[in-house]
Amino acid sequence: MNWWIFTRWVSAMALRNKLLGGIVGFQMAVETVEAKFKMSQNRSEEDRRRVAEKLGASGDGRSEAVADLMRDVADDQMPEA
Q: Looking at residue 2, what DSSP letter applies?
């Protein structure tokens, strides 16, 4: 092994060993989960229509489902952004 590679390897191992000393485990209890329902409601009606159109034409089932949801949900029924 050439000297340069060896010294780089030793330096990397020393850094690894130094960092390993700072790794600790912990546990947290989740008390609440807050989610956002984002369907481009902050965009204009025309933008949302175009997005739904492109998603619906994608040929991907998940994208088509999102497009259907965007079309089905009226702006006044959508949660605030």
A: -
